[in-house]
Amino acid sequence: MPALNAAVFDSDVGSGSKHLNAAKVRWFRRRLKAWAQENFRDFPWRRTCDPYAILVAELLLQKTTAATVAPVYQEFVRRYPTVEDLAIAPVEEVASLLQPLGLFFRAQKLRESVLVILENYQGNVPRTEAQLLELPGVGKYIARSVCANAFGQPKAILDTNVARILERFFGIDGGKVKSRSPELWEAADRLAPKREVGPWNLGLLDFGAAVCTAKNPRCDECPLQQQCDYKISSQVNNELISQLN
Question: Which of 90, 91, 105, 113 is the most exposed place for a label (fewest CB within 10 A)?
């Protein structure tokens, strides 16, 4: 994983959500950074800064695991290495290639997006979150991921993995639809460093996939357990149950 500047993590903790105590934020950043550098997952779209390749990867990754996407992605960028190549490809051909991933809309949205890029941006993937959000199939998560990973912009991300980490560690209630929670987005923005946000985002995704999982989280192996609200609450509940028995 690309190195994260430790100084960045200590100098930009401001005020905000009642759950985000500054000292706890600094501790969380240091621990997560150290874990991420040792446990970085290597996928082909993480080896490039090409905005087109990263946009393709993010659209393919919707509702699909990275391991499933990886071989399809590699064949996709081999066949359609540029926006222009994808624009002239028959949609049926693209859909056939993406068939193992399911969700036919992927092929259609990709084609629609590259046509917008060609017409409005001279074949260059737009650089701003607002412009990316105008592309078919692109939501806030994908737009920010492209901004951070392709253009090095300080854009935090929030998906179910990241939301789960923030809710558990900081005791935040993001409601039923995590992607629309203002408090979770505020927390994600405040936690992210001012620089090197792309690697930081990837570290959160890796941590949510490997340790802070939806089912059977590996709390006893977690480097964050000492200050995690979820872990501490679980211990208290277990002690109360033991006393009652």
Answer: 90
